Amino acid sequence: MVKLSLRSLLMHKLRLFLTVAAVTVGVAFVSGTFVLSDTMSKAFDELYEGLTRGTDVAVRAEAAYSDITTQGQLRPLDESLVDVVRDVPGVEVAQGSLTGFALILDKDGEPIQPGGAPTLGASTSADERLAGAFTYRDGRAPSGANEVALDAASAAKAGYTVGDEVDIVFEEGKQTFSVVGVVGFGETDSLAGATMAAFDTATAQQLLGKTGKVDEIAVKAAEGVGAEELRDDIAAALPEGVEALTGREVAEEGSAAVREGLGLFTNILLVFAGVSLLVGSFVIWNTFNVLVAQRRREVALLRAVGATRPQVLGGIVIEALVIGLVSAAVGLLSGIGLAVGIRELLAAIGIEVPTTSAAVEPRTMVAALLVGVVVTVVAAVAPAWGATRVAPVEALREATPVSGGIGPVRRTVGLVLLLAGLVGLVACAVVENQPLLTGVSTLVGFAGLVTSGPLLARGMARLADRGRRGGGWRMAARNIARAPRRSAATALALTIGLTVVCAVAVTAASTKTSLADIVADGNRSDLILKPASTGAGGMSPGAAEVLRDLDELDAVVEARYSGAQVDGSSSFVVGMPREGLAEVADLGIASGSLDDFGRGSMLLGVKQAQAFGLEPGDGITVTFPETGDVELTVAATFERDAIVGSAYLLSLDDFAANVTSRLDSAILLSYAEGVAPAQVKQSVEAAVADYPNVKVSDPDELTKDAQAQVDQMLGIVTALLLLAVVVAILGIVNTLVLSVVERTRELGLMRAVGATRKQVRTVVRRESVLMSLLGALTGIALGTAAGIALSRSLADQGVTSLEVPVATLAVYLVVAAVVGVLAAIGPARRASRVDVLRAITVE
Amino acid sequence: MTQPALLTKNDESADGTAARVVEARKSYGSGDSEVVALDGVSVGFHTGAFTAIMGPSGSGKSTLMHCMAGLDTLTSGQAFVGDTDLATLSDRQRTLLRRDRLGFVFQAFNLVPTLTAEENITLPGDLAGGRLDREWFDTVVSTLKLGDRLDHRPSQLSGGQQQRVAVARALVSRPDVVFGDEPTGALDSRTSTELLRFLRSAVDDLAQTVVMVTHDPVAASYADRVVFLADGAIVDELLDPTRDTVLETMKRLGD
Fold first, then answer.
1. Alpha helices, DSSP H only, in A484-580?
2. Residue A399: which pLDDT band, with cuts at 50, 70 and 90?
3. pLDDT over 90, % of chain A
4. Tally of domains within chain A
5. Which residue is closest to B114 within chain A, CA to CA?
6. Is some CB atom of chain B closer than 8 A to the CB atom of A174?
7. Does A37 reside within a domain?
8. What is the 3-state secondary structure (H, E, C) of A332-348?
9. Does residue B253 belong to the interface with chain A, where contact is any CB pair within 8 Å?
10. pLDDT of A188-240, one tens digit each?
11. Same structural domain for residues A509 and A536?
12. Any CB–CB contact under 8 A between B163 and chain A?
């Protein structure tokens, strides 16, 4: 049986290729995702391990709480603590270190800004024993107020070498330094993509606005003193709110935080992998179905000469196993390649991912093999089971396999599921903020499509079964109706990809409209200043200070964001000054008065106020990661939280008192009366010329920029889903080729009685188009419904408007038809070249 | 063994022949492995006549029919439908010739399973996009007694009914020649007789030309003339055959 299975596999190379390809893409996606995230974790692990090497104990401020939103924000320590630590017995060296914001400018004065990663200013280690992986590739350590060492990646990017002059922007403004050293971190050129400008400790304190302070104290233990022991000894000497950790604990904590961040990213990629796999399993299921149907006679013959059912079943399962193993192996290898591809894709849009040699964990290999083999075997078992039920007497019959329609039970179940899914989606759209239910409803709806698919295929065929008799549409429609199950399964592979694409497209369109509406609704500012890069960091507070001196401006209002817990739940809070707030934004005060807003009070979004059961005058607790609990009074509630980006608006004074970073995320400006707008914009740009990472936009430009970002995300998602669509196309090709092979005699007959090659090709092509359109129409319908529900689910995340991009959806439909035409090229040619004589001669 | 005189007379002029071949030669392979299927056959088929081609397996009778019907090409020599030399036609032109000027009845698998009987009958015309001669259609359908079967799919028809539908399809376009390739080969004797009567009446009542390959002496006896092939050459012929004269000739040739 094994031999027979293998032989039958090799006899059909094309089919083998198409089937393997279908599984391979899914497996490649899964393994690629794992390889990418493992590689990134490994890169970070190596980095943290390298940085903390030599450090036995680290002392730092205790965080009030810490999660993914706080980004390790900590209060600086008083410098005098370094001496306290140094005096603890068993300490060989103790040294304070600092980090902060420093933006390196290239030789043209443009900021060197990595996407996503921070731009760091830091103190260098005076003592080599605590330097860890921090090494000088070139030059020496900086010393004094005018010297800097740059990370090797930034130096290479901007072409700086030792001896060059470099401009660097800090919170306080721009300064010029002389490059005296180039720094590497072990083998890597940068800290996970971050830029770094390093100074001696005193200079760093002054430049980073932390005079007399340090962020962390690194300790090396004396010979023979254990890290844990020393940690406990030091902890005993520390004041309240300051903690001591071993170097290993710090490294592990850092790695864990990175893993948590990567987890989300990994999960998103795994969703795409799941979509590809689902599509792939449809294609495999279909292929095996056809394969078994075609071999009914062979199977029946085997049964007639004495093969038992388990033998027949086993034979097909062995075929599936072989295909699964081959696909999994190929998929694993392509996955490693794909990981590189995804990283490039992310880099292309400015998200730089740290890298090291590809990490292929055993887990990845197991997952790839499991996924490939299990999916293939499971998809093959149902048809195989059907094959064993072939009565031997079938061997004697004429065998053009006919796949039947569906029974009344399945029809009812299918329609009920479909209806339930759609009702669920409508309910989600009405109720709002039900992302989970939206997902479930979409899946239920899809299950309904799967179950009632053959019915839909028949319906599609009935619709197309018109026009001239003998015309291509009629013949094609009849062929679709002949095997409705197969047609439906083929089309549904396309449905999956399109459902997700359309859902994302609708959500993206809604988001874009919302962005425009937010600005149109509540904005009163004339100009908005934002950091030029969407990555971490912000603008130096110096920029806002300069602008306050301009007479042409009526109001200058900066906004800063920080992670904080409000009434115990993690969120983001925004800090803005009371002064000028009403001039730049119409917050839509619902209750209370803006006049009561100031130090010690906050503005609360209406919905949040309802959720907390708070009214103006009530107290509320905000917990900052650095400083802990702060009691505030609700001054007013407001409607338009989207315009300020948070439903928790604090006064800038309270914000600054609790958050060390003074970087502004946005600065809103309004013009004074009677000035010429173009002129003011010019003088604003001139005023902030020293802050090259500040981008001056008017509200329209800002909206367009934000919308462009949404488009970019849409582009990435579509690109990732493209693979699923490619698999679906392979499925169409597969089905067409197989059905052409099946219909050789019929096609020969048609050719004999006068169908031209072109007419035969037309029939096959239109079959393909009908299947593509069935997939596209169901996918677009379900995807649009899901997209509407999803948009309404994100209402609290700022997606306040709803927009269905009809033109885009129409394009998808046209593309699907074109895809159908393309997929049919090979099969149609094959059909038109059927050997007429052989087809009509009885063998 | 040879009686070429009568045959040659037919070949000399195209008058009165719906299809003919001149010095038709068909071989497969080359060199030592060359197999000759037709070895210089010249024969013509009269308009309005029912001709049977007989011969043992491998005699080339099917190849002769295929080449005359434009389903296959000759290695050398000429094949004509009316005055049209098939060798001058492209594949597409031959396809159109089959569609517009010829009718076919094969042994089995004559019908497109997705089409109804009526759609199968009108298929060549529909492929041509031409208008149907409804009166002629009705005549053909009533002659073949298919009136109550027109909406059925092939799978709902018996073998005999399927072959009748095929005959109807072959006749409905009023072709120059209807070619039958063992049209009764898969039928029992009763339905076989029925079908042959229909073919006979197509010639007698509807003035059609029928050329039929068969190895069944009974089937051949319905023809006006029987042409015998052996080893790729015409070896004999009979006019107004009966079952007995056909059997006799076959027996003589077999010796």
1. 484-522, 541-548
2. very low
3. 19
4. 3
5. A478
6. no
7. no
8. HHHHHHHHHHHHHHHHH
9. no
10. 787 777 889 999 999 999 998 888 889 989 998 888 888 888 899 998 888 88
11. no
12. no
Whether residue A295 is predicted with pLDDT greater than 80 in this model: the reply is: no
Query: Could you say which of B96, B114, B169 has the minimum Cβ distance to residue A478?
Result: B114
Confidence (pLDDT) at A68:
65
Judgement on whether residues A465 and A570 belong to the same structural domain of the protein: no
pTM, full prediction = 0.78
pLDDT value of position A184: 87
Contact A754 B99 (CB under 8 A): yes
User: At the topology level of CATH, where does B4-254 sit?
Assistant: Rossmann fold (3.40.50)
A445 and A499 Cβ atoms separated by less than 8 Å: no
Q: Are residues A76 and A216 in the same domain?
A: yes
CB of B66 within 8 Å of any CB in chain A?
Answer: yes
Run of H or E residues at A75: none
Residues of B in contact with A750 (CB under 8 A): 112, 123, 127
Where a domain ends, among A666, A697, A728? Answer: A697
Assess whether A469 and A505 both reside in one domain.
Answer: yes
Identify whether residues A741 and A686 lie together within a single domain: no
A45 domain residue, yes or no: no
Indicate the pairing of strand A619-624 with strand A601-605.
Answer: unpaired
- Shortest distance between the Cα of B102 and any Cα of chain A, in A, equals 8
What are A62-92's pLDDT values in tens digits? 887 777 666 667 888 888 999 998 898 888 8
Looking at the domain assignment, is residue A95 inside a domain? Answer: yes
| Inter-chain residue contact B106 with A749, CB threshold 8 Å | yes
Tens of pLDDT, residues A580-607: 888 888 888 889 888 889 888 999 998 8
Cβ–Cβ contact A404 with B under 8 A: no
Please, which residues 325-384 of chain A have a Cβ atom closer than 8 Å to chain B?
Answer: none
Residue entry with tokens 């004269």: B245
- Put simply, the chain A residues between 456 and 495 with a CB less than 8 A from any chain B CB are 468-471, 475, 478-479, 481-482
Q: Are residues A542 and A459 in the same domain?
A: no
Contact A481 B123 (CB under 8 A): no
Q: Measured in Å, how far apart are chain A's first and last C-alpha atoms? A: 27
Q: Which two tokens stand for residue B235?
A: 């070896």
Alpha-carbon gap, residue A779 to A45, rounded angstroms = 42
Residues of chain A contacting B96 with CB distance shorter than 8 Å = 754, 756
- In three-state form (DSSP H/G/I as H, E/B as E, the rest C), the secondary structure along A805-842 is CHHHHHHHHHHHHHHHHHHCHHHHHHHHCCCHHHHHCC
Q: Is A841 close to B129, i.e. CB distance below 8 A? A: no
User: What is the SS3 assignment for A573?
Assistant: strand
Of A478, A753, A840, Cβ closest to residue B99: A753
For chain B, the domains span 4-254
Q: Does B91 touch chain A (CB under 8 A)?
A: yes
Domain stop point among A228, A245, A262: A245
**Residues A693 and A707 both lie in one domain:** no
By residue range, what is the domain housing residue A545? 527-697
Calculate the alpha carbon distances from A95 to A73, A122, A218, A612 in Å.
Answer: 20, 13, 5, 46
Q: Do A78 and A185 have their domain in common?
A: yes
CA distance A261 to A253: 12
Average pLDDT over residues A288-312: 72
